[in-house]
Amino acid sequence: MSCSAASRRSAGRRTRLPSLCPSRAARRRAHLAFAEDARLRQDEHGPWDWTPEVSHPIGEGERVVADAVMHYTLVESEQRRKLRAFVEVDRTTMSSERLAVKLIEYARLFHYEAQPVSRRKQAGAGPAWQRWYPAFPRVLFVLTGASRGRLENRMRDLQAMVAQHPLVAGLAREVQLGAAVLEDLEQHGPAQAVWIPLTGGRPRAWFEL
């Protein structure tokens, strides 16, 4: 959902600074949680490593729009791991079923191959996402805006989609999928065991899904 950020002037000609709409505010909170965690861990993740509202084609004239694409460099001793994630920040403003359908859209992106413009290029055709990413980004759902019990139910619905939809099950065999509560990210940090794998199992860090 897009938000208007137009500033207004009062009768006294004072400029009122625009405030973030709820959806953008929630995305900013999620980004700040990762940025602060990176600072504390001495990883690499800055303002330009979080791109909001990224759109990709999935075929039949349709597109999937990620709330954000995150780039993050995990620094471990002498090794550096470059990680990427599609981030969906859910404020419980859509139905649980609609949220879970996002997994189908990402599965379609994973399998989607753009039609070659000529036969000569057909042999080199592959998944369209490889135009932008060396590996398919993991998919992270960040939930907020409801009671703990309701958010846990939404996580279970996401897990059910993974278990029941063959296309999503195929995605889950190749791509890490997880969900967490935004307030847990802010309190404990994304690198802690606050993420529920959508394939099942114990909570873990987002980069260990």
Shape: globular
Helix-strand makeup class: alpha/beta
The counted number of beta strands is 8
Order of helices and strands: EEHEEEHEHHEHE
> In what range is the share of β-strand residues?
25-35%
Uncertain runs are 4-17
Quaternary organisation of the protein chains: single chain
Give the CA-CA distance, first to last residue.
28 Å
Strand order of the largest sheet: 3-4-5-6-7-8
Radius of gyration of CA atoms, rounded to a whole number: 19 Å
Overall mean pLDDT: 89
- Helical proportion, percent range: 25-40%
Taking the sheet with the most strands, its summary is:
6 strands, mixed
Helical element count?
5
Keywords:
single chain; alpha/beta; 6-stranded mixed β-sheet; two-stranded antiparallel sheet; globular
Task: Tell me about this structure.
- With 209 residues, the protein is of the alpha/beta class.
- It has helices at 22-41, 96-111, 148-164, 166-174, 182-188; strands at residues 8-9, 15-16, 50-59, 62-76, 79-90, 138-143, 177-181, 196-197.
- It contains 5 helices and 8 strands, in the order ββαβββαβααβαβ.
- The strands form 2 sheets. A 6-stranded mixed sheet has the order 3-4-5-6-7-8, with helices on both faces. Strands 1-2 form a two-stranded antiparallel ribbon.
- α2 links the parallel β5 (79-90) and β6 (138-143).
- It is globular, with a radius of gyration of 19 Å.
- The model is unreliable at 4-17 (pLDDT under 50).
